[in-house]
Amino acid sequence: MPDALQQLLQWSTQQTAAAQSAASSTSTAVTVKPEASPETSASTSTAAAPAPQQKLDTAILDHIMGKSEAVMMRDKLAIMVDPEQDLNERIMAMDDFEMLIESIDNAADMQNMNMWPKVLGLLTDKQDPIIKLACWICGTAIQNNPKAQEAFHRHKPMAKLYSLISSIHPTISSTQISNSTRAKAVYCLSAALKHWPGAVADLTDDSNRGWSTLREGLSDPDPVIRRKIAFLINTLLIQSTDMPEDSTQSSTPAAVGQPNEMVEKMSETRVVDALLKSLTKPLPMGADGDISEPDWDLREKCTRALVSALERGGLDAEQRQSLASLWDSWKMDDEWENVGFTPSEAEQAKKLLRGDRAMSS
Question: Residue limits of the Nucleotide exchange factor Fes1 domain (predicted)?
Answer without folding.
Answer: 5-110
